[in-house]
From TrEMBL:
Domain of life of the organism encoding this protein: Bacteria
Molecular function, one GO term: endonuclease activity
Species for this entry: Flavobacterium rhamnosiphilum
Alphabetically ordered keywords of this record: Coiled coil, Endonuclease, Hydrolase, Nuclease
Sections of the chain in a coiled coil: 95-122
Protein name: HNH endonuclease
Amino acid sequence: MECIHEKMKSTDMIIAQLFVCSNCNYETVEYPSSCCFHPQDEPVIFYKDETDYYTKPESYTVYNQCKSCGRKNGSALKKSNYNKAELAYFDNSIREKTEKLKQELREHLKEMEIRRSEKRRDAFWDDYGEYLKSDEWKLKRKLVLERDKNLCQSCLNATAYEVHHTVGIFRKNEPLFTLVSLCNPCHNIITAIERGNHKDAAKIQHKK
């Protein structure tokens, strides 16, 4: 039965919520509709250039800064509405912490995609393994071996024991011309090459 993900454990990263199903390990990420999941805007003094603090102390702007994620939100506020002495300065340290969280999130998303890819691959091979046990495949295999007279169509020398897909897209609905009889050594070599191991693959042996 397919898991419906009822038991989801969450991790709060402020800028995102990570959810993992405790039953099947399914993972997903949710993002906030605002700057973060805990927006706490507060008006602060913001200098475009750090040196302006010393050389042009009145050349500042008032912005709302989220005290959870450090983001500068919205447009500049009207300076005359605020008493400079009562305002805090823009806190770069919050933003730096958030940038570290973003990097951690990016790494997590990469790892999550790897795990998803591995899961898809495992599901594919599990399904394919079941197909190779089916009567449908056994009949196709028999017909191809008989057509090729049990002779390996790669080396044209050894007895064929394997039936190989030459076009993967037809799996489970193969025209017989996309299937070919192979001996075990040739099948191993061709499979290795198809999976990208060109350098390590042995040479197919042809005899006169």
